[in-house]
Amino acid sequence: MSFFTEAGSEAAVLARLAECRNPRLTQVMTSAVHHLHAFVKEVEPSMEEWMQAIQFLTRTGQICDDKRQEWILLSDTLGVSMLVETINHRATAGATEQTVLGPFHVTGAPVLPLGSNICRDGKGAPCVVRGRVLGVDGQPIAGALLDVWQTSEDGFYDIQQPGIQPEGNLRGRFHSAADGSYWFVTVKPCSYPIPTDGPVGALLAGMGRHPYRPAHIHLIASAEGFEPVTTHIFVKGDPYLESDAVFGVKESLIREFVEVADPAAAAPWGVTAPFWTTEFDVRLKPAAAPAS
Ligand code: BEZ
Ligand code: FE
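Above: inputs. Below: predicted complex with benzoic acid.
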């Protein structure tokens, strides 16, 4: 008979996987048990520390609801979301890089004519975003769908401030034109803190980390026959580009935002000067052939 010992802890638990009939679950649990036992042996938590950890995990679950996902926030702030994202969307030469979706995407934003203004609260500095949707071969993609969203100039998404911001503020979907071009009006994005009123915020503060994300516009681009891409446009010069709380920045996604003072340049976009503008081409890779 063999009983549980400190030295044999991992082997004791792994022996109980012998009857598992799911090879992927066996692989995942073998690795999880291996790393967890190694972690505990390295850290040697006291009983009080172990209980603190249990309470942290309990609070993380308890604060979640249909609008708040603290587990994703934990994964984001530990770099795990970006690691999973990067492994699953390894860079393809010439294609726009992927980054985190984040918890504030809303499906079914209104489809708007090109050039529409998605700002519904009248706050912030107007900003014209334009570019083209192309294949990795440089061919324009007509009718691609661009789903865009961002925070207000106060640093909150509309769904974080019901009753304060108009519903659907700073969200919209656009179809690219026949030559692959797209353009819309928004406000210049600002850097903002991820939610800090839960256990993840307390953990960040405990680690001496700030909660800020650098200014960005979220974008999902999709088109028939191509792989969709979930990405951001980041603002060059933002002070948080190198310390994004969720590790989402990729150099290829950083763009210059230029301020334009000339009223004649503003008129064609339906904005008043001064306004900001940036250009961001999206390059999609062809969809993988269906497995036969
Ligand atoms: C966001 O950019 O919306 C976001 C991403 C990850 C965590 C929190 C917010
Ligand atoms: Fe965001």
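The two ends are 50 Å apart (CA to CA).
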